[in-house]
């Protein structure tokens, strides 16, 4: 089938306004809504308002195209499709990709498609959802005979053979060609064919080689249709000895990630997803868990190209509502099979997808009814794809409570998840309490109630997934030595101990931390807050907007402990320095269960001379030495990858960390320098040329630096961004935890000296001019070329 970009020039209308806007997809309607403390979405959805939205588009239909199919990858939520005023399809779940046949409803000439996304009733999610058509739409057209969209399914037989199955409509014969780069290396005939690939190159995290498969539909020597798909040759196996990719025992260094793209809201662009995947890979992660809904095709493609393993996840609920207006129970029971089919249809040819998770923290797994449904879902997944294992992110505390009839999520009026951690008390006692909670959840994972739940689920799931259940690992290994299991959700601060267990327990295959990348909503969950000792005011004004639980922030800046992670994983020998922020001496620092540090790699703090701070050296050695302006501040033993120096007085200049072995010999050194001179704006674009396709993005990292080019950590100020020419501003913001700014206004306050600009290309060639200004700082400009093929 011919594929037509159907993203351009939609008429957008919100139920709150009579105004009609022309928008290009993807488009997040929620990011445009007002944020208010009184909005019922609450902290879960970052206080954004809900709404009902209409997207309309006129297009011409040529009757020679007998078959017309529209593909919608993501519409949040309760979508209804109308063609020429007649409703022809619907889908409640906001993360389901689906195909709609338009053929029988079209007439010759002009037609109008309308897509309604109804997100008016909130809260309906525990985290930021976005709204509207936030992923791409495509139009497929063909004559009488064609290959179905996603009708080519490629699976690996062994390390040099693949099976290719083609679904078609109408008549014709199928011819299959496999390309290595531009060279045909194998070919065959038939819609169910196995091909041997000579000198085959396998796909894995270290060598993510991709082949191309071209499937042709031919009749009487005439080409009726053709499809090109990329794939990787890789095998999977799992048992009590571990998880194997191409026969190699593989440990998963995992990051849980939500679907939003920070300053872009829920919108999925290829450039944004590729950038995120690249930063995650550079931070040492080799796997991501798509939490808690199916991953975008753009991110799948990026993981294929870069070599990142994917645990794709279906839902955050089944039968029991976690929010009053989510899709649990009735809608779930009606639609779950279609949702499963949608996910597998999207994932099947992607070598990066190595397992399916059929849910997250489903409390009813502690009940017979929930376990029966779990078995039904797992078997249904296997019907469509038997090549990948089935898992589930099980919170054994919640399931154990449900088993006793004391479920946390109990009825449709449940408001859990809609509140913000930002309003919680700030005290030393509360800090202790929050950290104790993590220990309690972990401890309960090895209780008798948890044992019973695990016994019931073990025959159902191929791989057991446990959230916050480190205490269970040794018991699980001994109880079920023939089955592997995974830490599907863990705390970043527990990585050292968790990874020791991963390396020592053969059937524990990895660890997925919450979270690898920070996200919008579930506000304040992991944010380390600063509250004034006298006034009790938050150091950061405005409504909370982010979770704050990621080791990489929403703009893609790695936190200091990313180096700690890499040292634990054996990926880095060079020491790193983490400095506790020191610009708030009159404020109390409040920790979180999810985050016990917000230290940064910086020794540049204006107007902080004499302030005291704690410094953590992340190191692989036995001890570490701290040196300030050439003077040693002593040596400390390295415990669990850290050497902590307390009450270090800030003096501008140079601070160094020295990594020492057991003999005291230096085995690594790193240094941080203070910024000097006046503040200037620094702009760094990730590309200088875009295509006029309406989809390409340029990310511009903005920094406040001194005259020596070093970042000024606490010189934060409000920034103005103006875009002109052949593109538009898609988003602009920073990782500041609380704000009254909007990502679409062009005005935002930096956070720890940084902000991020996303510029979107239009459909015409030319130049995009970006101007950035702030009070008292010289304006900076940058120009981006837009040219080439769409």
UniProtKB/TrEMBL annotation:
GO molecular function: hydrolase activity
Record Pfam families: DUF4982, Glyco_hydro2_C5, Glyco_hydro_2, Glyco_hydro_2_C
Glycoside hydrolase family 2 catalytic domain boundaries: 241-395
Gene3D superfamilies on file: Galactose-binding domain-like, Glycosidases, Immunoglobulins
Similarity section: Belongs to the glycosyl hydrolase 2 family.
Domain Glycoside hydrolase family residues, every copy: 681-782
Highest taxon above the source species: Bacteria
Name of the protein in its database record: Glycoside hydrolase family 2 protein
Keyword Cytoplasm among record annotations: no
All residue ranges annotated as the Glycoside hydrolase family 2 immunoglobulin-like beta-sandwich domain in the record: 161-234
Domain DUF4982 positions: 610-667
